[in-house]
Each structure stands twice: as structure tokens, then as C-alpha cells.
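Whiteboard transcription, Tuesday session. T.W. wrote the C-alpha cells on the left side:
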């Protein structure tokens, strides 16, 4: 019999809130975190808006000396990790630290550090490069730094699969616990790619919305007038734990993870399969892994990026797996408010599914004004909704054709 895996702690740092509580309240209120970029000049860029974090005070969580040796990417994950650790009520003195692991993904890693150090190289020469340049840049360091802070000595690594990175991290953590290799795994993702080079690159790829004069209305998943995604940033971290471990320490349980499905489109570097079959297969595998039928699912947190091709492909994928039941599902897009957190998106959205199941409330997909005829499901448009939920899934799809689906159920089922 498979080991049951539950969520006992969650931390979120997002463009709509610097805590999980604020993030959740603002999502339910339909608040957008998209605004004109303030961090650097966007002169010459076709897109001048993004979903930046606002009002963060990192010194409340990390001392100044340590902060100077961290990329913003790592800072975000460390803060969210501390939030999740505290939320779970963890205490190193009562844990078997050899059986506590960490898997934290990122799509891009410490690109702000890379850009800054490259500028120093060109302007001041190689002798002025920081000795901390490499550890501040590499993707795995978020997991490593968290292990140092919490003394977790079990499996520790990063997942890198573009916008599916943190969903892969959660899926891996789920499997690690199921296999009996750890009792508890901190899992999730982090991203801080709102930088000149990243923005210029995504602009060159024509992937971003250019609705610069209406930032809060720019991310509009499933709307006929969508024109690209919005760059977001932040971190989402979850504490996954075996049910036995959680019960032994009297932990509060948000939800149970019961399935994961992972596939690849094997089609194109950036575009999804037009018929959505790679995404559909991930959903199908996740339901098989969970031992569920399509009719058992109440809710889908869609990848829903607000891109012309992606939203149609995902809608087709949902209909391919769920058939007539697709029209009974509630489907929403967190990215309509937070923008796209890239490697951190899957973790944030898994947190949203857990909260939605726990509270029986669904946040809206905002800016859905003129529905695309090819996107004809119930996307919870513009207004939050109360709905009793037993089972929800989270979809994450990344450049390179990576597809991950996670299945969560209510805590009262365990």
C-alpha cells in the first residue's frame, strides 16, 4: 500500500501578498499585482509592465550579511521556506533530520546576479568579480541554503524544467516520501527573473503582453483579447509529509497529494501541441496514479498563462480527458492576478488548490471580459465563488514541452 502524503505547511511570497494570508485574501478579492516596472529602465522594450513584489522587508527573515551573499531568487525561497516551516510547526529537536529533504526548483535561477557580475567584468575586469558569484547564480543553491538553515540532511536538489520546475519539485517530493526515502520534504519553487536581460529576451520572443497602458488588465487568460503573459516573481514552498509522520506530531493537514502525472510534448521549444495531447496525457496519468475517474475531480487550477496558443491547447486537453464533465468543472487561472511566476508558478498554484479545497472557495479569473469561443469552460470569471470541493488538480506546462499535473484531495479523506 502506498504511503499517504499530506501537506502540513505552506509559505507564499507573491506579487499580491508578502504572506500566504495576504496572497490568499487578495486572490479572492480579484486584486491584480501587475504594474509598471520600477526596478530598472524599460526604454526600448515592447513590454514595460510586470508583477513585481511590493513592500517586502527581507531583514525580518534574513540578516543583512547573509542577504548580501544571496541572489534575489534565493532570498525569496528562503523567506517562503521559513514561512512554510513555521506554518507546519516544525522543530528540529523533534525531527529525524536525516529523513527530512528539500527539493526547490527554478526556471532561470540567479539571473540578476549574472547580469550584474557580467557588467562588473566588462567595466572593471575579472579581479572585481564577487567570490560569491557562482553560488549566488546556480539554481540548486536555494535548496542548499534551506538545508543549511533547517539542518535537513535528506535528499536535496533542484528541478529545472522552465515553468513546470516547482510542479516537478512537488511531484519528486511526493515520490520520495512514497518510496520511504524521507518522512518530510520541503518542496516548491522560486523565481526572480524581472531583469533587463530576461525582459528583453521574452520581448524578443514576443511572448509578453504589450498592454502597457492598462497593467492590471494585461493578464487575461481565456479572454479573446489576450496577447501574451505577464512576468511575475516570488516563491511558493510546501511541507510534504507522510501521514504517519504528520499524525505522530499532531500536525494540521491542509490536503493530501494523491497523484502526479508527467509527460513531454516532444514538439516545439516554446509552443504547446495544438491539440493539447501532451497536457492531456499528464492529466490522464495523474488520475490513474490517484486511482480516480475524471468525474471525481471538482476543480482545475489551470496553467492559464494568457497566451493565444496555450489557453486553447489547455482547454482542448481538459475536454479530451474530462469529456462532458469538463463543463461541470470549475477552472481558474491564478496568473490572471499574479502574472507568471515561471519556475515558482506550479508551487503557488498547488498552494491555491490546497487552500481552495480547505476553505471551499475559488478565486476568480480576472479580466475575462470577452470569452474566446475556443475557450468555453467555466473559468470562474471575475468574481470569487463558494463551492464545496473534494478534489482539485493543478496543471503546469513549461517551455521544452514539459507537462506536470498534481492531484490533491481534502484533508478529511485521510
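and on the right, the sequence the group agreed on:
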Amino acid at each position: 500500500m502506498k504511503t499517504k502524503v499530506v501537506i502540513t505547511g505552506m509559505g507564499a511570497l507573491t506579487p499580491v501578498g508578502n504572506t500566504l494570508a495576504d496572497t490568499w485574501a487578495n486572490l479572492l478579492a480579484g486584486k491584480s499585482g501587475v504594474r509598471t516596472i520600477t526596478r530598472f529602465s524599460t526604454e526600448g522594450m515592447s513590454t514595460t509592465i510586470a508583477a513585481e513584489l511590493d513592500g517586502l522587508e527581507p531583514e525580518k527573515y534574513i540578516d543583512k550579511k547573509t542577504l548580501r551573499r544571496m541572489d534575489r531568487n534565493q532570498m525569496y525561497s528562503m523567506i517562503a521556506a521559513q514561512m512554510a516551516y513555521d506554518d507546519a510547526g516544525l522543530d528540529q529537536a523533534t525531527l529525524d533530520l536525516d529523513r527530512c529533504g528539500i527539493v526547490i526548483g527554478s526556471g532561470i535561477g540567479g539571473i540578476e546576479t549574472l547580469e550584474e557580475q557580467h557588467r562588473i567584468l566588462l567595466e572593471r575586469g575579472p579581479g572585481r568579480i564577487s567570490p560569491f558569484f557562482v553560488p549566488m547564480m546556480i539554481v540548486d543553491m536555494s535548496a542548499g541554503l534551506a538545508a543549511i538553515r533547517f539542518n535537513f540532511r535528506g535528499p536535496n536538489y533542484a528541478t529545472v524544467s522552465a515553468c513546470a520546475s516547482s510542479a516537478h519539485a512537488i511531484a519528486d517530493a511526493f515520490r520520495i516520501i512514497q518510496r520511504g526515502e524521507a518522512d518530510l520534504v520541503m518542496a516548491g519553487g522560486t523565481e526572480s527573473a524581472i531583469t533587463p536581460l530576461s525582459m528583453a529576451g521574452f520581448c524578443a520572443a514576443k511572448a509578453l503582453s504589450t498592454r502597457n497602458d492598462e497593467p492590471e488588465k494585461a493578464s487575461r487568460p481565456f479572454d479573446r483579447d489576450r496577447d501574451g503573459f505577464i512576468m511575475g516573481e516570488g516563491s511558493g514552498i510546501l511541507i510534504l509529509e507522510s501521514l504517519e509522520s504528520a499524525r505522530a506530531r499532531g500536525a494540521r493537514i491542509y490536503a493530501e497529494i494523491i497523484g502526479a502525472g508527467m509527460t513531454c510534448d516532444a514538439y516545439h521549444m516554446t509552443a504547446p501541441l495544438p491539440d493539447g495531447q501532451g497536457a492531456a496525457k499528464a492529466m490522464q496519468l495523474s488520475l490513474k496514479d490517484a486511482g480516480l475517474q475524471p468525474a471525481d475531480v471538482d476543480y482545475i487550477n489551470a496553467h492559464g498563462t494568457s497566451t493565444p496558443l496555450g489557453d486553447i491547447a489547455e482547454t482542448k486537453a481538459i475536454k479530451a480527458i474530462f469529456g462532458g464533465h469538463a463543463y461541470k468543472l470549475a477552472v481558474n487561472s491564478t496568473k490572471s492576478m499574479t502574472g507568471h511566476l515561471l519556475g515558482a508558478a506550479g508551487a503557488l498554484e498547488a498552494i491555491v488548490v490546497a487552500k481552495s479545497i480547505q476553505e471551499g472557495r475559488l478565486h476568480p479569473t480576472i479580466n475575462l471580459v470577452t470569452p474566446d469561443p475556443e475557450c468555453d469552460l467555466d473559468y470562474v470569471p471575475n468574481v470569487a465563488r463558494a463551492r464545496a470541493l473534494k478534489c482539485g488538480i493543478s496543471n503546469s506546462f513549461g517551455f521544452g514541452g514539459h507537462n506536470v499535473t498534481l492531484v490533491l484531495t481534502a484533508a478529511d479523506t485521510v
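Someone added at the bottom: The mean pLDDT is 97.
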